[in-house]
Design goal:
alpha/beta; Rossmann fold; 5 strands; binds adenosine-5'-diphosphate; binds thymidine-5'-diphosphate
Length: about 220
């Protein structure tokens, strides 16, 4: 005689969907004066209002060492292109190790004003070091930690120049350089279409922020 069938284990607690990572790492990119800092701030504020824990940071900088490197990079003497790329990567390595990775591990959202794409656009393309070469240098620094989404705020370089607030060593480069960086960013968006989302920065800040929130909601 057969054994009576044992009841199936309860399934109510069984997970039927894949685990969803709740924390999101978002970066903002664009030429100087594009409005990316404004958008990074609005995004961090919106996340906080929704009750999320948020770590908002910026590059170059975001750590005591990074701020010192920032000073060297933006207000220091002229330097070779590889020295510049290596210093940006050094500041980034410190930021990833001390701020970004621990925040994500603690389940917080991370919003960063500029990240590795800045180096790919400015040093890789505009300074002609090569995207692959600068990415290779940075892969060690960021330990493979790429953003979940990168918002590239696009505006005409003339509009951006009129808006720009500061004038550092890199911003003092001529109009041609900034046009090249603009083209470089657009090229990066076509190279990394799954990660980089372009937004029209010519609209009022709140309208841009609303679009970005909508796109982030699609992620979770
Ligand atoms: P970035 O970080 O790209 O250099 P910021 O966010 O600091 O740019 O903005 C530069 C200037 O432009 C600031 O005075 C800011 O108030 C203004 N600004 C930012 N976004 C917009 C926008 N969408 N339209 C008009 N002005 C803007
Ligand atoms: P930032 O402080 O973001 O200037 P702004 O907010 O006015 O746009 O950045 C400083 C400058 O450093 C800016 O001209 C871009 C440049 N930069 C690089 O060239 N490579 C990099 O990797 C980063 C992070 C910034």
């Amino acid at each position: 005689m057969c054994e009576p069938m044992k009841p199936a284990p309860p399934v109510t607690s069984a997970r039927t969907e894949p685990y969803r990572r709740l924390e999101v790492f978002v970066t903002f990119e664009g030429i100087d004066g594009s409005g990316k800092t404004t958008q990074a701030e609005l995004h961090a504020q919106a996340l906080r209002e929704e009750g999320h824990e948020v770590v908002a940071t910026r590059e170059p900088g975001g750590t005591p060492l990074g701020e010192q490197v920032r000073e060297l990079l933006l207000n220091g003497r002229d330097m070779s292109a590889w020295a510049e790329a290596a210093l940006f990567a050094a500041a980034r390595a410190e930021l990833v190790e001390k701020v970004i990775a621990p925040a994500l591990e603690a389940g917080k959202h991370v919003v960063c004003d500029r990240y590795v794409d800045s180096s790919l656009a400015y040093q890789g393309i505009a300074r002609r070091l090569g995207v692959d070469q600068v990415l290779e240098l940075n892969e060690h620094a960021i330990r493979g930690l790429l953003p979940d989404r990168t918002f590239l705020v696009l505006v005409d370089p003339a509009t951006a120049a009129a808006r720009a607030r500061s004038s550092d060593r890199i911003e003092r480069e001529g109009e041609d350089f900034h046009r090249t960086v603009d083209r470089a960013y657009r090229e990066l968006a076509t190279m990394f279409p799954d990660r980089i989302v372009t937004v029209d920065g010519g609209r009022p800040p709140d309208q841009i922020a609303e679009e970005i929130r909508g796109r982030i909601r699609q992620l979770s």
